Amino acid sequence: MADSKNIIIGLLVLALIALLFFLAFRPMTYSSTYSQGDYQPGHMGPGMMNNPGYNYSYGPGMMNNSGYNYGYGPGMMGNMMAIYYPESKPVTQDEALKSLENFASQYGSNIQVADVMIFSGNYYAVLKDTNSSQDIAEMLVDRYSGSAYPEPGPNMMWNTRFGAGRTTTGAPEYDLNEAKKLAGDFLTGYLPGAQVLESNEMPGYYTFDFGRQDIEGMLSVNAYSGQIWVHTWHGPYLGETNITG
Q1: Are the CB atoms for 77 and 56 separated by under 8 Å?
Q2: Which residues on neighbouring strands pair with residue 205, listed in sequence order?
Q3: 5 in a structural domain
Q4: Is residue 8 packed enough to be buried (19+ CB in 10 Å), middle (13-18) or exposed (0-12)?
Q5: Spatial distance between the Cα atoms of 92 and 79, rounded to a whole number of angstroms
Q6: Does residue 4 sit within a domain?
Q7: How would you class 70 by CB atoms within 10 Å of its CB: exposed for 0-12, middle for 13-18, buried for 19 or more?
Q8: Is residue 10 part of a domain?
Q9: This protein's superkingdom (predicted)?
């Protein structure tokens, strides 16, 4: 009798584990889960850290820039494991640029969209402060849903103006040239033959485009720790455009 009871309990535990695994890693039919209206620049509220599409789990390593623990929530995993219908088509370039401009306006009237790049998965753009001519943040527009949102990764976790990096104190350890050298050293193993092609100095970190001839990817270097974060969410590079279309 006791053995039968133990077997039943064991089966229930296995069933529960299987259910949790399914919920965490199930592929999801593609849809946008991000609401632009929820985001408040410079504020770690529901729009930033707790929105359903981007669930970041961060501990001391993340907040202190001595390492990071990047936790994927169901929404993030769903977007990364998206299933598209065969008839799915990307939004038009004009629609994507309009989404970029509308989202940028939430940062203030002095913020403009610059350096627009097109990847298979999304449109990428740098936001620039026209008062200081400084790059302040990175954002994306999903190429299939048209939803605009802050770029994940360094933009959310290392940005000292709008992200979790606002808790960082002290002076940066690496300037742009030193960070570029760190990126180049990393690329010798990550993508042999690749070089840093273009750069942007962001608050608390630097973002570099890299490739062997043309742009093949993007990575960021933390200005305080020297850590490198590869932007793996873009997909293949398709080209550039500009905000005037």
Answers
A1: no
A2: 202, 222
A3: no
A4: exposed
A5: 20
A6: no
A7: middle
A8: no
A9: Archaea
In a domain, 46, yes or no: yes
The C-alpha angle 241, 190, 57, rounded to 5 degrees, equals 80
Please identify which residue in the block is written with the tokens 């970041």. Answer: 56
Full-prediction pTM beyond 0.85? no
Number of folded domains that form the chain = 1
pLDDT averages per 10-residue partition of the chain, 245 residues: 67 66 44 41 38 33 35 39 83 94 92 93 95 95 94 96 90 97 98 97 98 96 98 94 56
Amino acid at position 37, single letter: G
What is the biggest distance separating any 2 CA atoms in the chain, rounded to whole angstroms?
Answer: 77
